[in-house]
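Morning. Coffee machine broken again, so started the prediction first thing and wrote up yesterday's gels while waiting. Chain of 210 residues, entered below exactly as on the submission form.
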Amino acid sequence: MLGAVYRYPIIAREGWVYVLLVGAAALLAQYTVGTAPAFWLWLLSLGLLYLFRDPPRRVPASPLGVVSPVDGLVLSVEEANDPWLGRPALRIVLGMRPQGVFSVRSPVEGKVSKQWLPVRGEPSRPRGYAQWVRTDEGDDIVLVIKPALVVRRPVCYVEAGQRVGQGQRCGYIPFGTRLEVFLPEGTRVSVEPGQKVFSGTDIIASLIHK
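Came back before lunch.
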């Protein structure tokens, strides 16, 4: 079933201005200097359409499932300390592909309890943009976007205190980066390093409740 919270067109709105500008330039070149000179602009326009694509995703009917927040590869699965909540946790590290879909989707349904932004001058502060979501069952999931040279600041569409749906589009990272998903101890992991995953569709773990 297509997620009811999907309210975005198939081309991410973050790319609209670039697609329109290049498309307008290609159209102008077509009518002023001819098809041959305009060809490369049309080709660039098609490339931008592909780069900023944002296809709808079918969120699986799994209330305790944790869906992948991004398209990419599983880089590692390991036990780790969650520096944001100060707890032992399971950490799944995902690497986005430069040519992949850049939208970020919420791994679970719940309430955004807190968000952290990088603060200069605080070396003890963990690096990255982090979002803490607490599910209705009381599970804490922390999604961390690691800084990259081409990512100054990801676009975020939800704030602390708001509810977010499982698989809901909640952010955008131009050209991608690395993400970490911190899960409660005892969570059943469904992926392994090297596995390709798709945002909002593939379940990477399942929360355990007896």
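Residues 74 and 193 are 5 Å apart (CA to CA). Going to sketch it on the whiteboard this afternoon.
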